[in-house]
Automatic annotation (TrEMBL):
<dbReference type="InterPro" id="IPR050807">
    <property type="entry name" value="TransReg_Diox_bact_type"/>
</dbReference>
<protein>
    <submittedName>
        <fullName>Helix-turn-helix transcriptional regulator</fullName>
    </submittedName>
</protein>
<dbReference type="InterPro" id="IPR001387">
    <property type="entry name" value="Cro/C1-type_HTH"/>
</dbReference>
<feature type="domain" description="HTH cro/C1-type">
    <location>
        <begin position="7"/>
        <end position="60"/>
    </location>
</feature>
<dbReference type="InterPro" id="IPR010982">
    <property type="entry name" value="Lambda_DNA-bd_dom_sf"/>
</dbReference>
<dbReference type="Pfam" id="PF01381">
    <property type="entry name" value="HTH_3"/>
</dbReference>
<keyword id="KW-0238">DNA-binding</keyword>
């Protein structure tokens, strides 16, 4: 899976909308939408999203199995 697909999966598992993830992470909702639709996020954005979703960057890179 690509990073955007994993971000969306983790976000949905936490019952978060893109707006809620944006509010919690400080990343614009439009950026989250762009990433979920296939754009490659920067390392800094990956770190912020991982922290907000309480997962590792490895999870977002697909190097670790998706957890509940």
């Amino acid at each position: 899976m690509k990073a955007g697909e994993l971000i969306k999966e983790y976000r949905q598992k936490r019952s978060m909308s893109q707006v809620a993830l944006s509010d919690a992470s400080g990343i614009p909702q439009s950026t989250i939408s762009t990433i979920e639709n296939g754009s490659t996020p920067s390392w800094e954005i990956m770190k912020k999203l991982a922290i907000t979703l309480n997962i590792s960057v490895g999870d977002l890179l697909g190097t670790e199995e998706v957890k509940n």
